[in-house]
Write a structure and sequence with these properties.
single chain; 168 residues; mainly alpha; two-stranded antiparallel sheet; 2% strand
Length: 168
């Protein structure tokens, strides 16, 4: 029977390797799925969905949140999760600006950046089991969930205000 105070290093390593594969797959789908022929430029579902006014950037942030969630599940440090969340917020805020935001989203590639940050962390920690010290994740998880919802609420408020201004 396994001792709960000493996690199985092999199982921990397998979880980190599985997380690494999921993160790479998510980032590729969101930021690198389609290549532009004759160039090294790539884009993905995040750029395509971001073209939909109003909900596109919100949906992109939610999909990018999958990488943040993988980071939380893999035990990435709070500082790293906060940095990744910052990248997602910047992408969502600037991405919500019509046309300029779409160009920025294509160039900024926050999902690829976040994946690279997390994959680098996982590469450094694949061989070592997680520490026994528990980490408080409640406030950070709350932020990861709150930011996209708050941005969606602001986008809806802005659209309502715009329509009221145009049609009153």
């Amino acid at each position: 029977m396994a001792d709960p105070t000493h996690p199985d290093p092999h199982a921990h390593q397998q979880r980190l390797l599985a997380a690494r594969k999921r993160v790479a797959l998510i980032a590729h789908g969101l930021d690198g799925l389609i290549g532009i022929p004759g160039t090294r430029l790539r884009f993905g579902l995040d750029s395509i969905i971001g073209l939909i006014p109003g909900i596109g950037d919100f949906a992109g942030m939610l999909m990018g949140g999958a990488i943040l969630t993988e980071g939380l599940r893999a035990g990435a440090p709070n500082r790293l999760i906060a940095r990744m969340l910052g990248n997602t917020v910047i992408d969502g805020l600037v991405g919500s600006v019509p046309l300029l935001g779409d160009i920025f989203d294509f160039a900024f590639r926050s999902n690829a950046m976040n994946a690279r940050l997390l994959l680098d962390h996982l590469d450094r920690h694949t061989q070592t089991p997680a520490g026994a010290k528990p980490v408080r994740r409640g406030p950070l998880l709350f932020l990861v969930l709150l930011v996209p919802v708050a941005m969606f609420a602001l986008a809806v408020y802005g659209m309502v205000a715009l329509f009221q201004h145009l049609y009153s």
